[in-house]
Design brief:
With 351 residues, this protein is of the alpha/beta class. The protein folds into two domains: 171 residues, Glycogen Phosphorylase B (Rossmann fold, 3-Layer(aba) Sandwich), CATH 3.40.50; 144 residues, Rossmann fold (3-Layer(aba) Sandwich). 31% of the residues lie in helices and 18% in strands. Helix 9 crosses helix 11.
Length: 351
């Protein structure tokens, strides 16, 4: 007599991937408002899940409670241990406790050189990767399993020998699109702090109609120096930001230190040419082809030239728009994520 044993199909458990945004969102927006907005951090969680992984997003909160938003993306806010710490110095014991409980196969930190990531890495022995958010140096950089950089120049300069790839700053192209109805001559979007250098735009506010979008420690100093008619609404919802950019003739990005800021891609997607500092913006774009990159002393005269040279304006507008829509749509991050996971886990996760 032969004993029949039913076949049991063994299903491999999904790999767990936790994304952690190390920059505390509450310094910009309350978490309840942040979670209502459409950000790349949420898109890539969805995309990671679509690729077959158990994906979650962890963020910092100034609340005393853990807040979870279990929609199609699991977003969880954890309270910081000390609200008085600088934005790059926060820790969260409750986040660490949750990570010990989850035991993820991979942690992906959005941002480098933050105390939070260093603290977690030193206490939780697991694979980790970085999404570069501007700063390109970190104590644990050489131990990373992967780095998702903003530009190829960053990879060449900082990440040689580390598995890496350029990670597009994706946009919702249904929001960021051209608008022929121009309200402002110039738009600038960014936090009001020293490195964003809005003071370089003060003289231009007395000559042109300008919108300065954002908030921060230097807001009142700039507000008191610009022309009274300058539009300065502080932070706006992403839909409103898209409308102001598209309703402007040009973007002037005066920052003296950046990676490659998303607002420049948003500007190009709207068909709005931008001027930025050549010492700041490197990679992705080409001077006089899809933008203008100049020294700060040339800023004012370059603005005058671009606003009065129709042929140059139309060339930069067309080329910038094509660059944005061809390379920075929501889906452009999927193959990069897939490549990263295959590299780290040696094979696509099986369900």
């Amino acid at each position: 007599m032969t004993l029949w044993i039913p076949e049991v199909k063994v299903t491999q458990q999904k790999k767990k991937v936790v994304f952690i945004k190390v920059h505390p969102p509450f310094t910009v927006l309350p978490e309840k408002e942040w979670v209502l907005r459409s950000y790349r951090e949420r898109w890539i969680i969805r995309q990671t899940a679509q690729l077959g992984y158990d994906a979650k997003l962890f963020l910092l909160s100034d609340s005393n409670c853990v807040w979870s938003y279990p929609d199609d993306v699991e977003v969880t806010f954890f309270p910081v241990d000390n609200k008085k710490m600088a934005k790059n110095s926060h820790t969260s014991q409750l986040m660490l406790d949750r990570l010990y409980k989850e035991l993820p196969d991979l942690i992906v930190f959005k941002g480098m050189n933050y105390i939070l990531s260093k603290w977690i890495i030193s206490q939780l022995k697991t694979k980790f990767a970085f999404i570069v958010g501007g700063h390109c140096v970190d104590k644990f950089m050489n131990q990373a399993s992967y780095v998702l950089a903003e530009t190829q120049d960053q990879i060449n300069d900082f990440f040689k020998g580390i598995p890496s790839a350029v990670f597009p700053k994706t946009l919702d192209l249904s929001l960021f699109k051209p608008n022929s109805n121009k309200v402002y001559d110039i738009v600038n979007v960014g936090s009001f702090e020293h490195r964003k250098n809005q003071k370089a735009l003060i003289n231009l506010t007395y000559k042109y109609k300008i919108a300065l979008i954002g908030d921060g420690p230097d807001f009142h100093k700039i507000r008191s120096a610009v022309h009274p008619d300058t539009y300065m609404p502080r932070n706006l919802a992403v839909e409103e930001v898209a409308n102001v950019i598209a309703s402007s003739k040009i973007m002037v990005h005066s920052s003296i230190w950046e990676g490659f800021p998303r607002v420049l891609i948003e500007s190009m997607a709207c068909g709005v040419p931008f001027i930025a500092l050549s010492s700041t913006i490197k990679g992705i774009v080409t001077h006089n082809e899809n933008c203008l990159l100049v020294n700060e002393v040339e800023l004012d005269e370059t603005v005058d030239r671009l606003l009065n040279d129709k042929e140059l304006y139309e060339k930069l507008s067309k080329n910038g728009h094509e660059l944005a829509i061809n390379n920075f749509g929501k889906e452009s991050t999927i193959p990069v994520l897939e490549k990263m996971f295959k590299t780290i886990f040696s094979a696509t996760a099986e369900i």
